[in-house]
Write a structure and sequence with these properties.
single chain; alpha/beta; 6-stranded antiparallel sheet; 5-stranded mixed sheet; 24 strands; 31% helix
Length: 442
Amino acid sequence: MEIATRAHTGSALGSGGIVAHVLSGTQKGVTKVLGGRMTIGKAADNDLVLSDDTVSRHHCELVRAPDGIHVRDLESTNGTKIDGTRVREAMVQPGSVLKVGEVEISFRPAAQRIEVMPSDKPQFGPALGQSLAMRTIFGILERIAPTDATVLLEGETGTGKDVLARAVWSASARAQKPFLVVDCGAVSYSLIESELFGHERGSFTGAISTRQGAFELADGGTVFLDEIGELPLDVQPKLLRVLESREFRRVGGNKPMHTNVRVIAATKRDLQREVAGGKFREDLYFRLAVVPVTVPPLRSRREDIPLLVQHILKGAQGADLSVSPETMTALSAHDWPGNVRELRNVLERAIYMAQATGSSEIGVVTLPTSSGGETAFHFEPDRSYRETRARYDSEFERRYVKWLLARHGGNISAAAREAKMDRKHLHDMAKKHGLRGEGGDD
């Protein structure tokens, strides 16, 4: 059964499986799960083999996408029809009937959706949150953690995806085995394959000795692929092969090696949008998104800020410091483009200042200004280039959308026309940043 983990997704298919049911012909009653791609025909090398005389050897191809199932006729003799209409290329939604020659096939969700109840606890491992959004995520992860299901954590930078990944590992049966992190955005392009799968001595310049990769070192444990959206396209098929067959080869090696690991992946990118843009393989996305979880930004769960403040103060040796009501109000009102990571940095700076002045209260916290100096860049030495760029990319997007909507009184259609961008894309951006906009045309 499918666990609903995306309350706000716009995908027609969600994240669950789709099953093809043969309704007529000699294979009547046969079912086949549609993964990323399926071919149908009489030849034995098809994914769904139909022996009926009206079916061509390679009749049609189906590709699953976020907006539906794309069907392409492979120049068959008797054609491919959707609800009675012959097509060359078209899209079919679950519930429709596809006619391959004279064989009818329906597509239905693989299982009934199950809504997971929010957790009764305001935390999951070290991750904290008393808001409904976070307790819903905790409820999902509490059920999923003991299994070997692949988890995909999506959300802005600094939302705590790495903390949730470690919490899943700690609550799993693999907790006594290794937990290895591979940051796909921090490893150089030429070395990422070696980082994942290892390499043999002499396989490339600088490979002076044999090296084990994450999938070999973490055997029996968990591999956390952080920033999976940055993984080069030419490496993605090799990762897909590991996920499907649990088999890989070291760079420069010929011997197939087997691994038994659980994969947890995280990204700040919208992978469905990356798939649509051809920047991420669709089949790999579906293989990773067995349990997709979107971690909300801090501005969407402001009720969690007081709890996080107290926790951060305690962890940073500031438990003896009090927070004035005015300061807590200021903290709760800030948009936090850097999310929990930014909140921690601000509080740690405030703790040092209070201790230096002998104060017992954090009464004034310097927050990034939202006016006057909005275009100024503020670089911090403890942030990597990737983290710094992600922060300002997100902040630029938020401020631009806010400015654009304000110019048109919140009318998304008018704003999208002026910006020469897709209306739905603008609506999604506004929703992502918690900005209000009206969708009506004018």
